[in-house]
Design a protein that fits this description.
The chain is an alpha+beta fold. Among the domains are: about 80 residues, Alpha-Beta Complex (Actin, Chain A, domain 4), CATH 3.90.640; about 190 residues, Substrate Binding Domain Of DNAk, Chain A, domain 1 (Sandwich), CATH 2.60.34. It has a 5-stranded mixed β-sheet with strand order 11-6-7-8-17. A 5-stranded antiparallel β-sheet has the order 19-18-21-22-25, with no helix packed on it. A 4-stranded antiparallel β-sheet has the order 16-20-23-24. Helix 3 packs across helix 4, helix 6 packs across helix 7 and helix 6 packs antiparallel against helix 8. It is globular and about 80 Å long.
Length: about 675
């Protein structure tokens, strides 16, 4: 990256950087509009609503830009290992949504990599920190990276790494500190020479580079002085220089509001986990900007303890990803893993000094056998708010197999630490279609369209192109919610009443909370691999009526997770239907991130309300969305298509991979 950073000072318009903030975002989003004001390179809208980058007469998708980085990393690994590398574990910010994760997976495919798993960066850091430990503790991973911020609360119990809650801001990071310093430089230059450097993108990038250097130096020393030569030209072509001095106190005044924003996110995560900051055992810092002394002091003040500064914040995520990649790539090995090499780093008073390594890579001494990981995770819900829950008891493999055999439900239970919707007020409204009682092939009765007093709402023929959800599962009884007002959820008990063929088809190849353990045959054939139990960072929802959003899978639910929703046709002989899906916590779909559309085609011809479709929404272990649908009446699989905003079709991915190979030679 160093040559590219130097090239950025000379050719800013053709040097692309910080696309991690933009990958997977629609071109129409606020973040992209804001980036256009800051970035020197050109951004444009792609055919599917994504973002394209223009450089040297060609356009590139952001997945393709990321693929350049992944391909280079692949070559570095191949040179170090002396063999070809075709698989990888890729880490992403914990708060990435479905569009961003899908775009990251596409980048791996363009780089000719088989992405085994998408892992959240804080989870990977916790894996490196807690690997090969036998203690039980709660930790917070405070990840202040270059472009994003994440906070994740985890429970570590031996080789079980359970995420309790996560939150983040994908547009907050060290780049914002650099921008604050650069803006201060611009003000000083404007006062001295009456010229705004932002008018020259090349000059502005030079200031950004100088600002980053100043930030790094002020982590180790109290003040700095620098000179940016010939930043602009005055009368007669004379060069205008910027002589700039900055003290650590001034830097702290600039970045204090940015660091303070992170604790609003931390408070959100702590509330979701049901804990107070002082109830944590350790705080792990991730990201180079966590070396800023002010940040370390503010973190210590918020959590009531000094953060761990003896782990390199630049490497800990990569080390955790490497550990997880090893466990995925050798599932049948009986040998224990090598220890991770963590460099001890002294960061007191902002000083950075590498010490000797505390462990050695390749140490294959036998490890003490560990009990099978627990899978019954809902037991901890019985603890009082703010009370430290005890670690779950280990479960035997036999009990795991029994619980899996008895699980015939369509919807696996998911953990959600947010307040129940049943505990919140509800405003009752009406729906705009006729009430009816339908009975599907399973004998399940559902009523739709009844008012609170039993009255009937008249149909609206203009909405005949929409699909109507059935029963209380769709709208929380018969109400249409308003902003900031939630409703009670009533899950459809399809597992006990639907036909066996329907249950089998919908449950086919679906991971549940215990699905990660289902393939365990015998302890002696399985390596001592860590078990990661992660959560979904954002709620998944579908559009209902009047622009409202119905949550399907709630934020901080354990993944893999899935929920089934029943839909029916809204007019006679309806052949297809479109369901808009989104991620976010607002009740209005316009305030959430619209992901795209789920299109159901080829519906059998029938009268309105006679065709009932069971749609299964699933979030897999990577945090990415999968959808399946089935006609309840016939048991036939329903044709379905997911059209995500900015998604790259298969043919385009193949073409991009071929272009990469032609440019870079394989």
């Amino acid at each position: 990256g160093a040559p590219a950073k130097e090239r950025r000072l000379l050719d800013a318009k053709n040097t692309v950087y910080s696309v991690k903030r933009l990958i997977g975002r629609p071109f129409s989003s606020y973040e992209v509009k804001h980036a256009q004001e800051r970035f020197a390179f050109e951004l444009s809208e792609g055919p599917s609503g994504g973002v394209l980058v223009a450089a040297r007469g060609e356009t590139y998708t952001l997945s393709e830009i990321s693929a350049f980085v992944l391909r280079h990393i692949r070559k570095v690994a191949e040179q170090a290992l002396g063999k070809e590398c075709g698989t990888a574990v890729v880490t992403v910010p914990a708060n990435f949504n479905e569009l961003q994760r899908s775009a990251t997976k596409a980048a791996g495919r363009v780089a000719a990599l088989d992405v085994l798993r998408i892992v959240n960066e804080p989870t990977a850091a916790a894996l490196a920190y807690g690997y090969n430990k036998t203690s039980t503790e709660r930790v917070a991973v405070y990840d202040f990276g270059g472009g994003t911020f994440d906070i994740t609360i985890l429970q570590l119990a031996g080789d079980v790494f359970e995420v309790l809650a996560t939150a983040g801001d994908t547009f907050l990071g060290g780049d914002d500190v650099d921008t604050a310093i650069a803006d201060h430089m611009i003000e000083r230059f404007l006062e001295a020479h009456r010229y705004d450097v932002r008018q020259d993108v090349e000059a502005y990038e030079r200031l950004r580079a100088a600002a980053e250097w100043a930030k790094i130096q002020l982590s180790n020393q109290p003040d700095i002085q620098l000179c940016v030569e010939e930043l602009a030209y005055g009368d007669g072509g004379a060069g205008l220089n910027l002589d700039y001095a900055l003290k650590r106190e001034q830097l702290e005044h600039m970045c204090q509001p940015l660091v303070a924003r992170t604790f609003d996110v931390c408070e959100d995560a702590m509330k979701a986990a049901g804990l107070r900051p002082t109830q944590l055992d350790n705080v792990i810092l991730v990201g180079g900007s966590t070396r800023i002394p002010l940040l370390q002091r503010m973190v210590a003040e918020y959590f009531g303890r000094e953060p761990r500064v003896d782990i390199d914040p630049d490497l800990v995520v990569a080390q955790g990803a490497a550990l997880h990649a090893q466990s995925l790539s050798a599932p049948a090995r009986k040998a224990p893993f090598a220890k991770v090499s963590l460099k001890k780093v002294a960061q007191s008073s902002g000083a950075v000094a590498l010490d000797d390594e505390i462990t050695n890579v390749g140490d294959h001494r036998p490890l003490a056998p560990l009990p099978p990981p627990p899978v019954v995770r809902a037991a901890r819900k019985a603890t009082l708010p703010g009370q430290a829950p005890p670690p779950p008891p280990p479960a035997s493999l036999d009990s795991m197999a029994d619980s899996l055999a008895d699980d015939g439900l369509l919807d696996a239970p998911t953990r959600a630490r947010e307040p129940s919707y049943a505990e919140q007020p509800t405003r009752v409204g009406t729906l705009d279609f006729n009430p009816s009682t339908t009975e599907d092939a399973s004998g399940l009765l559902m009523q739709i369209g009844l008012e609170a007093d039993g009255g009937v709402e008249k149909p609206d023929e203009e909405r005949s192109s929409l699909m109507v959800e059935l029963g209380e599962d769709a709208f929380g009884r018969d109400s249409v919610p308003i902003d900031d007002v939630s409703h009670a959820d009533v899950d459809l008990d399809l597992g006990s009443q639907a036909p066996a063929t329907l249950r089998a088809a919908l449950d086919e190849e679906v991971d549940t909370v215990t699905g990660a353990i289902a393939a365990v045959a015998a302890p002696e054939t399985v390596p001592q691999a860590p078990l990661l139990l992660d959560v979904t960072p954002l709620s998944l929802g579908v559009e209902t009526v009047d622009g409202y959003c119905e949550r399907i899978i709630r934020r901080n639910s354990a993944i893999p997770a899935g929920q089934t929703k029943m839909f029916t046709t809204a007019r006679d002989r309806q052949e297809s239907v479109v369901v808009r899906i989104c991620q976010g916590e607002d009740r209005k779909i316009s305030a959430n991130q619209l992901l795209g559309e789920v299109v159901l085609d080829g519906l059998r011809p029938a009268a309105r309300g006679k065709v009932q479709i069971a749609v299964r929404f699933m979030i897999d272990a990577d945090g990415t969305l999968q959808v399946r649908a089935q006609d309840v009446g016939t048991g036939q699989q329903q044709q379905i298509a997911i059209k995500l905003i900015g998604e790259l079709p298969e043919e385009q991915i193949r073409q991009l991979r071929e272009r990469h190979e032609a440019k870079l030679g394989g």
